[in-house]
Structure formats: structure tokens, C-alpha cells
């Protein structure tokens, strides 16, 4: 004869195992984008030579963007950015001071990455210097972990997209350009 206590425990164990399995499957299906380690390398109000939108830059570009020169500082060769992919984000010229971009978050899902930035603009009644500004943000991301980059602001307005070439494709492109010269 079957022991009722053992039967009850067996049924509880089976229910418990099914609940854990369903929980695990549900969590895996709802995983969504993973956080991406990103750093604001440069946040400046008077950027030079940065177009509106999203542009890939390297270390050699940082001083130029800031409007200065690097003196007696060793930098990686042009095109090399170590373990960081550097991306300049801009909304172009602005009519007054008081505009700024800041890094909010970054995430990746598969081969696609998303950067969320905060676009701050002055209030309508603010008293501001009447000077043309060109705010930008340079963000550093882990390189080669994705092939598509999408940048949006806090309202989900798109600031730009960028296709990222693999390091091997970049090297081949540089070689072809050098051979063509």
C-alpha cells in the first residue's frame, strides 16, 4: 500500500520542479538587453569638427574636438583606440548657452547596441549668453561587441545610427586606402 505522506511529498516535489522550470524559461525569454559598460570620455559645450548625429572618432580626434592640442602626450596610433570604441554624439550648433548632452545608459542585445543620452535645453524664460555653442558628448564603449549602434535621447528621439566594422575589416580598409595613395 502507498504511503500518503510519501505520495504527497512526491507530488509537491514534482510541482516544485515544474514551477522552477517555468520560472527559468520565463526569465530566459524576458531577458532583454544587457547593460553595456560605457563611459563619458568628453562632455563639452564647444566641440569643433563634429557633425550633427553620431560619428566614430579616435583618440587623436579628442584634442581637436575640444579645440586644443596634446603636447608631449603619447597617444595610440590613428585608428587604434585600445579596448574602447569612441563615438561622438552631437545635435549641431545651438543659438545660446545652456544646451548639453550627457550619458544616461548603454545596453546591448545580440549585435545591436543602444546608447541613451539626456539632451538638456534651457527653459524658455532663461537669461542666457547670446553665443553659438556646439555641445557634444564622446562615449567610450567596449569595442567589437556589436555591429550596429543606435543613439536616442530621453524622449526616444533618434540622434543617429552607426554601423561598426570589425577590427579586421577596419585594418583591411586602412590598408586599401594606404595602397591607393
Question: How would you portray this structure in words?
Answer:
Helices cover 27% and strands 31% of the residues. It is globular and about 45 Å long. It has a five-stranded mixed sheet with strand order 1-5-6-8-9, with no helix packed on it. Strands 2-7-4-3 form a four-stranded antiparallel sheet, with helices on one face. It is an alpha+beta fold and 181 residues long. The protein is built from three helices and nine strands, in the order H-E-E-E-H-E-E-E-E-E-E-H. The N and C termini lie far apart (91 Å). The longest helix is centred in the first third of the chain and has 26 residues, at 4-29. The protein has one domain.
Q: What is the structure about, briefly put?
A:
The chain has helices at residues 4-29, 59-66, 167-180; strands at 34-35, 39-44, 53-57, 84-90, 100-109, 112-120, 136-142, 148-152, 158-163. It is an alpha+beta fold.
Enumerate the spans where pLDDT stays under 50 for 5 or more consecutive residues: 5-9, 18-29
Strands ordered across the widest β-sheet: 1-5-6-8-9
Radius of gyration: 25 Å
Number of domains: 1
Cα(first) to Cα(last) distance is: 91 Å
The helical percent reads 25-40%
Counted beta strands: 9
Which helices and strands occur, and which strands form pairs?
Blueprint: H1 4-29, E1 34-35, E2 39-44, E3 53-57, H2 59-66, E4 84-90, E5 100-109, E6 112-120, E7 136-142, E8 148-152, E9 158-163, H3 167-180
Parallel strand pairs: 6-8
Antiparallel strand pairs: 1-5, 2-7, 3-4, 4-7, 5-6, 8-9
